[in-house]
Design the sequence.
């Protein structure tokens, strides 16, 4: 009998130890959560009442929002950009709200956030995500994103619905090393597909960078596909012979067939293209921001928006999305609104290639977003939702 | 009725029965259920697939299977990667067995110099994460194909490495094979050590040629070890991901694992799960074939009687040269990678190895650019270090304890149906690719299932998956150690009326102390350097060194990535050495038993 009892004890402690550990820490985090939420719950109930009124009348005044955010005391958010750490610090200093920022890869971030929302243990209040397609499919359509509006934001952006609030536009550009060829060399994008320059183009693997899929998908849309067809004629002196639906698809096909070198990061692309003393001139597609760090990295990069036909880059919105069921909704709302302000953008003043969605804010480039819109491909959420899956599948067959 | 009840009570009064039953239930939920879950995941529409399949999330669909096997492009998207995977797995096995086997023979059966040093360094190959060798390979042999600066080899010799050498199949197979060669070394070495060389001497007296002895005696004796190695390496080689990704991407070389990753990571996870199922079916086939060939042996490693008589083959003239060659080789594959990580973490501009370009800022500066402080000043690093150690301790305690108990239960009931089933179940997690297992756990534990709470976001989740994934190693070493103890020892104690726990603590555990400790050490080591298993499941609060490294790699912060790689390797090796010193347990005795 004795041995049986002992055995029971031993088994309880060992074999089930796994699940106990699991439960233990769940309990811990849950108590923490409930503690922190307990304080808020009372207000939250009031808030939901007042929130209903708000949508009817108007949302909280700025001062009320600040007060409510301070009451919550902290903010947890995820983002892909390392500059956000400075923004987080600035926000914390300005409002005395504790900010916990975590830098994650884009794909990982979406996976984690959907898992959090699905499990009901929502850790993040807000995410700064950029892959329009996945944001729409996995955060907006699933109802994980909080539906809210703010008229002050509306005044700046022209749309007061903040469910999928764009707070800045980031850009990626086609760049090359001008060491051998000087500037204004890349005059036509079709050079990338020219067999003469085979194996001299590099970009980050779209499978680990959703916005690269987004860019390639946009190429298959009008008017970009037609523009590509025109440039093809300029470059090769004859009309494009289509084996696919349009010049956009054809461009993708030829790009892969011409031996694109896929990498795991934009930085690798930048050093690949920019390394000094190479025998060949490489072209790469990566974050415009890398242009500004070339001296520090000892590389040489160049790009010409105006010379390169039909376009030389891509602009994609970066969204601030608040999650339903998060612990600090007001802090998150304040943070979203604040990101559009001068102080909110301050951390990004030197961010080359980034443009605040608030046109009043400064930009590190010597051109404005409006200046370059005509030279770059713009992101279109509706088109992406419809067509990106096809482009992904098409690319899988080209690999 | 009463008889039945009494029978049942009698049955569960035996601890081995209780252990096996509890394990059966737990493993059914944690290992078998996920298998069904994966299959289910290949048949439904996931939220990210709504716009692709044009159906509501959660509805049944044959889309993923049809896309994989019936679409016009299946050669490029499925069969070719499958072929690559199979070639990789087979060749990795060959390399692991050739290198590991030869090394085992040299160390154990010859009079080579520097045995201790070589043996220790050789284990580094296994202790270091597999992909570190891949990174080191590109650091050295990168050529102009991928642009940028070329590797150290070309910088020194001015000779450009050919593409097949620098990327794709060749380096992937070589790196994977070398990484698992210590398996072969330990398993084959274990047998060579215990093999009675009288057998060979007898043949020698009968005038059998050297080759004849090798083919007719040595090979059959080490066959079980070779088969075990094949099983372990094949399953690992099939699902090797990071190495294939690093070395395959530049030349468009894809395997099932890298394809699976891009589907799981992209917007067609259902198809990713189809690939996972295929990989598991292949591994299972190998397992079954392996069992057939092994017959009904007691364990994978067969100790054919203790021998005190090992005659060392004299290398004669070749002794010096062989010793130098072997030592040089081992140093090349273990020490050089360290040097390359250290160098890369210290250089400001990549590829420029002049003194002025060296800086400590990525280690200690307050501001090392891009908004980060040097790695040793970065609070996230210290948090990750703490988390990694804690997780490794938890996983090793969990897996080691469960593994030892499982070994006990299985060994005591060897031959019974229950024991066979549980034995199979404890090995099953080894065959599920890490990425697929973590993706399944992510969806399985992100919502509440009956009494099982939603574990996602907790530290317990990481511990749970770690324990399950490392159970095969721990239970194998537990089983081996229990087999070596004759049941009579325990039986005499039972006759004396000594309770079970006392029998365990006073008899079984003390006898097999080092072997059981090794059962803890293996999960500990593997956990410290594991990336693929945790990368989907960690949360910002439970960030680990490897997941931090993954992020740095993704972002291209190369100096930070190299610094962390170096630290992980040093951490793992020094912890191993420490545990070895204190307890006498070592990884070698864990796998080999």
Sequence:
């Amino acid at each position: 009998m004795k041995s049986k009892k002992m055995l029971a004890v031993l088994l309880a402690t060992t074999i089930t130890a796994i699940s106990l550990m699991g439960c233990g820490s769940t309990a811990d985090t849950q108590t923490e959560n409930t503690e922190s939420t307990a304080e808020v719950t009372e207000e939250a109930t009031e808030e939901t009442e007042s929130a209903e009124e708000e949508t009817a009348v108007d949302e909280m005044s700025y001062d009320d929002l600040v007060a409510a955010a301070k009451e919550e005391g902290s903010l947890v958010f995820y983002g892909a950009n390392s500059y956000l750490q400075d923004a987080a610090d600035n926000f914390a200093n300005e409002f005395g709200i504790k900010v916990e920022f975590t830098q994650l890869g884009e794909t990982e971030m979406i996976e984690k956030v959907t898992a959090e929302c699905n499990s009901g243990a929502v850790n993040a209040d807000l995410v700064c995500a950029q892959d329009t397609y996945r944001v729409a499919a996995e955060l907006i359509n699933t109802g994980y994103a909080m539906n809210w509006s703010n008229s002050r934001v509306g005044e700046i952006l022209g749309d007061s619905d903040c469910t999928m609030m764009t707070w800045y536009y980031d850009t990626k550009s086609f760049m090359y090393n001008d060491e051998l060829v000087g500037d204004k060399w890349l005059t036509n994008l079709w050079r990338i597909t020219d067999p003469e320059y085979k194996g001299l183009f590099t970009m980050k693997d779209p499978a680990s960078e959703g916005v690269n899929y987004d860019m390639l998908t946009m190429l298959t849309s009008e008017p970009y596909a037609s523009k590509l067809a025109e440039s093809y004629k300029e470059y090769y002196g004859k009309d494009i012979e289509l084996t696919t639906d349009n010049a956009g698809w054809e461009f993708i096909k030829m790009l892969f067939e011409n031996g694109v070198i896929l990498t795991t990061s934009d930085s690798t692309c930048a050093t690949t293209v920019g390394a000094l003393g190479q025998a060949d001139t490489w072209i790469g597609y990566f974050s415009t921001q890398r242009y500004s760090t070339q001296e520090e990295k000892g590389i040489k990069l160049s790009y010409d928006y105006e010379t390169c036909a039909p376009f030389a880059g891509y602009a994609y919105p970066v969204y601030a999305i608040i999650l339903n069921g998060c612990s600090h909704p007001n802090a998150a709302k304040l943070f979203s609104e604040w990101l559009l302000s001068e102080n909110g953008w301050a951390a990004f003043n030197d961010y080359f290639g980034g443009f605040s969605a608030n046109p009043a804010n400064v930009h590190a480039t010597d051109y404005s977003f409006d200046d370059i819109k005509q030279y770059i491909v713009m992101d279109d959420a509706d088109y992406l939702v419809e067509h990106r899956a096809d482009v992904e599948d098409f690319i899988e067959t080209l690999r | 009725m009463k008889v039945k009840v009494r029978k049942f009570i009698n049955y569960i009064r035996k601890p081995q029965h209780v252990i096996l039953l509890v394990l059966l239930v737990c493993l059914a939920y944690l290992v078998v259920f996920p298998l069904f879950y994966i299959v289910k995941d290949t048949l439904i529409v996931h939220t990210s697939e709504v716009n692709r399949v044009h159906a509501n999330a959660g509805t049944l669909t044959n889309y993923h299977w049809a896309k994989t096997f019936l679409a016009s492009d299946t050669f490029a998207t499925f069969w070719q990667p499958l072929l690559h995977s199979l070639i990789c797995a087979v060749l990795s096995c060959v390399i692991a067995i050739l290198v590991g086997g030869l090394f085992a023979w040299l160390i154990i059966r010859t009079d080579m110099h520097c045995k201790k040093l070589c043996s220790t360094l050789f284990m580094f190959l296994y202790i270091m994460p597999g992909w570190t060798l891949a990174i080191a390979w590109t650091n050295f042999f990168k050529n102009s194909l991928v642009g940028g600066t070329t590797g150290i080899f070309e910088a020194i010799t001015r000779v450009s490495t050919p593409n097949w050498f620098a990327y794709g199949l060749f380096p992937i197979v070589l790196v994977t094979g070398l990484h698992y060669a210590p398996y072969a070394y330990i398993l084959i070495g274990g047998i060579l050590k215990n093999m009675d060389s009288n057998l060979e001497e007898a043949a020698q007296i009968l005038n059998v040629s050297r080759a004849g002895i090798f083919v007719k005696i040595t090979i059959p004796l080490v066959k079980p070890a070779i088969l075990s190695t094949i099983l372990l390496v094949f399953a690992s080689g099939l699902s090797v991901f990071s190495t294939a990704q690093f070395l395959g991407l530049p030349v468009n070389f894809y395997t099932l694992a890298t394809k699976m990753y891009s589907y799981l990571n992209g917007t067609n996870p259902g198809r990713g799960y189809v690939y996972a199922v295929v990989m598991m079916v292949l591994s299972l086939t190998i397992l079954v074939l392996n069992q057939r060939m092994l017959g009904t042996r007691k364990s994978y490693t067969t100790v054919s009687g203790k021998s005190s008589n090992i005659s060392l083959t004299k290398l004669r003239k070749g002794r010096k040269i062989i010793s130098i060659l072997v030592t040089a080789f081992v140093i090349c594959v273990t020490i050089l990678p360290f040097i390359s990580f250290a160098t890369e973490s210290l250089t400001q501009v990549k590829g420029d190895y002049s003194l002025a370009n060296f800086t400590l800022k990525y280690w200690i500066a307050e501001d090392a650019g891009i908004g980060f402080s040097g790695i040793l000043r970065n609070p996230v690093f210290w948090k990750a270090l703490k988390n990694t150690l804690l997780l490794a301790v938890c996983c090793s305690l969990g897996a080691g304890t469960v593994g030892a108990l499982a070994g006990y239960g299985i060994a005591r009931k060897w031959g019974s149906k229950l024991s066979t089933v549980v034995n199979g179940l404890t090995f099953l997690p080894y065959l599920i690719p890490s990425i697929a297992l973590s993706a399944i756990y992510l969806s399985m534990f992100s919502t509440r299932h009956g009494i099982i709470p939603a574990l996602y976001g907790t530290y317990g989740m990481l511990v749970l998956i770690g324990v399950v994934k490392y159970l095969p190693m721990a239970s194998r070493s537990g089983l081996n150690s229990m087999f070596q103890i004759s049941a009579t020892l325990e039986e005499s104690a039972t006759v004396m009326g000594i309770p079970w726990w006392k029998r365990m603590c006073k008899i079984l555990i003390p006898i097999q102390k080092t072997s059981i400790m090794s059962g803890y050490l293996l999960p500990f080591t593997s956990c410290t350097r594991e990336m693929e298993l945790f990368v989907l499941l960690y949360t910002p609060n439970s960030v680990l060194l490897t997941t931090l490294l993954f992020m740095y790699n993704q972002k291209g912060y190369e100096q930070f990535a190299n610094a962390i790689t170096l630290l992980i390797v040093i951490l793992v090796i020094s912890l191993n050495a420490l545990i070895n010193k204190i307890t006498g347990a070592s990884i070698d005795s864990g796998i080999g038993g």
